Structure formats: C-alpha cells, structure tokens
C-alpha cells in the first residue's frame, strides 16, 4: 500500500461496531486505541474483522490543543 499520508499507525482491530450506515472500528496501536468512523460498505469492501492487522491513517490539516 502506498499513500500520501505520512501518519500511518499499524495495529490490530479490537472491535467493529456497525450501526445503521456507519461502523466504529477500533485499532490497538501498541496500548493506545484509535477509533475510526467509516461506512459499513467500507468495512465490507476491505474485509475487516476483529483480530486482523490494519493501519490507522491520520490526515489532518489542523491539530488543536485545549486546557482547563
């Protein structure tokens, strides 16, 4: 796989929760868990399953910081 995004985090899918149209896919990337909201169709097209290795790809133009 070759993509332009530079923030790719390899991990293992720990859960997939499908809703009416959108699924929440949780990937453990070494103790931290990243959650992605993608379509149910994308889950099916990619053949995603719990326990499978996958990449979380982060592409953002801004990162905001907040404090109390």
UniProtKB/TrEMBL annotation:
Give the InterPro entries listed for this entry.
Mo/tungstate-bd_C_term_dom, Mop_domain, Transp-assoc_OB_typ1
Instruction: List, for all copies, the residue spans of the domain called Mop.
Output: 2-67
Keyword annotations for this protein, in alphabetical order, are: Molybdenum
- One GO process term, biological-process aspect: molybdate ion transport
Pfam families per the record? Answer: TOBE
Q: What domain of life does the UniProt record list for this protein's source?
A: Bacteria
Protein's name according to its UniProt entry: Transporter
